[in-house]
Amino acid sequence: MSVAVPLSLSLPPSTETVAIALDERGYDILIGPGLLDAPASWQGLPKAAAALIVTNETVAPLYLDRVRAQLAAHYGRVDKVLLPDGEQHKDWNSLNAIVDRLLATASDRKTVLVALGGGVIGDMTGFAAAIYMRGVPFVQVPTTLLAQVDSSVGGKTAINHPLGKNMLGAFYQPARVIADLDTLDTLPPRELAAGLAEIIKYGPIADADFLAWIEANLDALLARDKAALAHAVKRSCEIKAWVVGQDEREQGLRAILNFGHTFGHAIETGLGYGEWLHGEAVGCGMVMASDLSVRLGLMPADFLPRMRRLIERAGLPVVGPRLGVERYLELMRVDKKSEGGEIRFVLIEGLGKAGMRGAPDALVAQVLDAHTA
Amino acid sequence: MSVAVPLSLSLPPSTETVAIALDERGYDILIGPGLLDAPASWQGLPKAAAALIVTNETVAPLYLDRVRAQLAAHYGRVDKVLLPDGEQHKDWNSLNAIVDRLLATASDRKTVLVALGGGVIGDMTGFAAAIYMRGVPFVQVPTTLLAQVDSSVGGKTAINHPLGKNMLGAFYQPARVIADLDTLDTLPPRELAAGLAEIIKYGPIADADFLAWIEANLDALLARDKAALAHAVKRSCEIKAWVVGQDEREQGLRAILNFGHTFGHAIETGLGYGEWLHGEAVGCGMVMASDLSVRLGLMPADFLPRMRRLIERAGLPVVGPRLGVERYLELMRVDKKSEGGEIRFVLIEGLGKAGMRGAPDALVAQVLDAHTA
């Protein structure tokens, strides 16, 4: 689907734009304050008779009416689906609620879906858009920092299955991403920190200068300074777009985006979903993966305290739960990225450079001993 | 996913091959007798630890063991899922049975799905492959004539929803299609005729010479002559591939593949699914659409009796059920291809050339009067 996006001059002047180039499916990420209420944010989207906003009970009271008002200028009918809030609702029932609504309103194959919320809403709405009549357009309006940096690029959509996270899904690209930084003003501090974890990640895996920039600007980010947030979100999206552009279907390079995630997923699963936020588990997982990089001789010893200090300053946990080494290893062996039972870690091989490697169990055990309590 | 397909010289000498070129997702369709038991048919498929055969209760006793034996030479584990037979089971429950089996066996993202059966099995298996872990490879082994000519090309996968046929799905390409003509020996005569309907279709929409060839060879096709079947399946796949290659995502040209389908879908829905086979409804629908082409002055008068005679000889119905003109119009207005309530017909504009057009209700009524009883 080719979507022309004539960006109007009337966007707020502070708006940053990241153009994602993907053959015929390219799109723009708009980043900045004041975007929800700027008519220009909504111009040039795919034409259709109707749009359907998908959001949740937490986000709807804050932003639904404003988004609906903007869409009403472009679509004859604007419907909504209100889903319950939370990762535990990222399932077939919620997906079905979206599909049922589309069919009940006799929505045709041009209907535009609008995901208004965090990563869960974005993942589910994107998957519904991917499979309804084999594909309708969708727009991402991420309202959490994590969703703005992580779900905006890469086209991963999914729902969970009782037997596994993100087990059903599709690679499917949005027609546009509208990341209004003002929506972060209402974000709880834990969720802000969880978003910062994914931003911090991009430094060690791809950009040493960006790591230094984050260290110098972390206080501004924590104070929700709009200019600092705009740069952090933009640079994260650019790096992710560069990585994904070389490996859209996750055959190889893209795996480096999972720095900290192998340990992190084990923490999430081991504690039960919902105990720690995903970003919190990734933060702690990055400490462990940094230590493993040092113990394998890939990085000098001062890399570990540098990463731990930054992650701690961001308000993220740096000590994992004491699940036991055997349990950690078991959880990491069923990771989606493991192959034939061998655990594969994303490790730092120089500031701004990452790779996938295995590691001796004994060394992993040392890491777990050092960073769990 | 790039799949190298080194076609061995040891394929049966009568094998026809159609190479489908789709950037990185190209694949081969093998057509001929004796393919199921030819080791060469199964060489060069994507490597994986395991394969999962999806089939149904009717097909399994005939071919499951033979396919399993061939796959066992390439995959360490070969599992199976047995689904109930029939279009009414092309739903979320069957899809879930496939996914549950994949998860229960801890299948990774390289696991190869093998669809062994007709169009229903192919559509569901393809959709499961499209969404399991955001995409695993799959192989089509179509065992009906309809599936060999229709599901082999185009990448359409789907399940039905209580509110509509094929409402949830994806465009997703197989790694290979193995169309063994020997499997047609066990096909009931009604199903053979239903497959012939889709073959006949390719003449008027794209290839006048092929229409003449079908007329000259229909008796051989009905007698299940392998050489005649091989040519008919091959030419149908080639034409479909040519059309789809120009319009993979069904934005325009691809709609001509629906010649006879607008009237046909109305017959299927009006009678209730399962009364007529899809191909039977399409056969009768082609008579109606041929007549409409003549009444609109697009084709000379002798085109209608020529088409009606051929469709009748194939053992297909040429007179539709008397649902009433208003009911027909109502059913055709909710067709997935209608836009803003206007019915769009695929009409013949010269032998081997088709286009999409609207038509006055009064003319459509004349057509329905002439061909229903």
From TrEMBL, chains A, B:
Its EC number is 4.2.3.4. It catalyses: 7-phospho-2-dehydro-3-deoxy-D-arabino-heptonate = 3-dehydroquinate + phosphate. Binds 1 divalent metal cation per subunit. Can use either Co(2+) or Zn(2+). NAD(+) binds at residues 85-90, 119-123, 143-144, 156, 165, 183-186. Residues 195-338 form the 3-dehydroquinate synthase C-terminal domain. Keywords: Amino-acid biosynthesis, Aromatic amino acid biosynthesis, Cobalt, Cytoplasm, Lyase, Metal-binding, NAD, Nucleotide-binding, Zinc. It is an enzyme of class 4 (lyase). The keyword Lyase applies. It is found in: Cytoplasm. It comes from the Bacteria. Zn(2+) binds at E198, H261, H278. Belongs to the sugar phosphate cyclases superfamily. Dehydroquinate synthase family. Catalyzes the conversion of 3-deoxy-D-arabino-heptulosonate 7-phosphate (DAHP) to dehydroquinate (DHQ). This is 3-dehydroquinate synthase. The lineage of its organism: Bacteria, Pseudomonadati, Pseudomonadota, Betaproteobacteria, Burkholderiales.
